[in-house]
Amino acid sequence: MGAVTSTMAAKFAFFPPSPPSYELEEEEVEEEGGAKKLRMAAGVGVHNGNREYVDVLKLETKRGNHVVAVYFKNPAASLTVLYSHGNAADLGQMYDLFCELSLHLHVNLMGYDYSGYGKSTGKPTEQNTYVDIEAAYRCLEEKYGVKEEDVILYGQSVGSGPTLDLATRLPKLRAVVLHSPIASGLRNIDKIPFVTCPVLVIHGTDDEVVSWSHGKQLWERCKEKYEPLWVKGGNHCDLELYPQYIKHLKKFISAIEKSSRLRNVSGSNVDQTEDPRKSIDFREAGRSSIDQRETPRLSADKKEKPRLSTDCREKSRSSTDRRERSRKSVDRPERESNGSDQHEKARNSIDRFGDMIRSVGLCNIDCFKPKASAI
């Protein structure tokens, strides 16, 4: 295995966007006595609305590089996602996606640029990514007071390397998400058995850059498996466009939050990794009716993204009709009306997420150079 992974790693290359998609500026903050604060200059995908909830930072790594990070604060959040992005992207391109994920998943979210990416200094190398993510995680602990057990590590494609490397060294970590991950090129296949928290794997079945087999191999070797999301027809760069992407992430976050609450109530030690799996399984059983509605759609979603939202609305109407009949039979109009409103808001929220992702245009995010062969 070692010789194979070394060969794959030797062929692997980093492709930071050139030039960077953003610039950094300093501005004075009146409420902080004129102190200087970094901001991202408007550029590709960068919008500076609600800046009071966004921090732009420069973090020094153990190797002396300075990496740029962006932290999105969500007042309703109990969990924090540390997102390691894909190979051919930088923070300017990921900015709006990070903002939307923070809002829709109700989490704080930190993203960072690897050494040599965006406005981060140094050279992009595998070893540098490991100290880059350490600097970001250290910032979450020291600046924002985030606890290890409240952190979810999210690794997209090449980002699966630093994500799994750090995950093996955090025994109290809440969860890991691997998005189109690489199994062999970054030695991830050797590290995944040492991750003790729940792991969600997301991969497209038609991935032409990193074969779907990579995601399946990693999922099979997980200690704490969570129901994977195999996006039928999904390629390497477009999984965010499929409605089930955000729905499955929401389901995962909800299960993770519930497992945390159950442990707090029972007083169990957070190191007991058996508990998260049991509470997640319990969550799955409780959501079986939802899964039954979604399973047929997963098998038919290959190239029908526009129809998916329509199907969602049709199913929502039938579900609402059933609730209406139930409401008449028990004569509780006010309570059922409130529940319907909440369902409508959730549906509209997912539709808006899909519309935003289409407008951002993720076609260049995480793609290797043209004519690159699949790994």
From TrEMBL:
This is Serine aminopeptidase S33 domain-containing protein. Residues 80-183 form the Serine aminopeptidase S33 domain. Residues 263-350 are annotated as: Disordered. It comes from the Eukaryota. Residues 274-350 have a biased composition (Basic and acidic residues). Pfam families: Hydrolase_4. Gene3D superfamilies: alpha/beta hydrolase (3.40.50.1820).
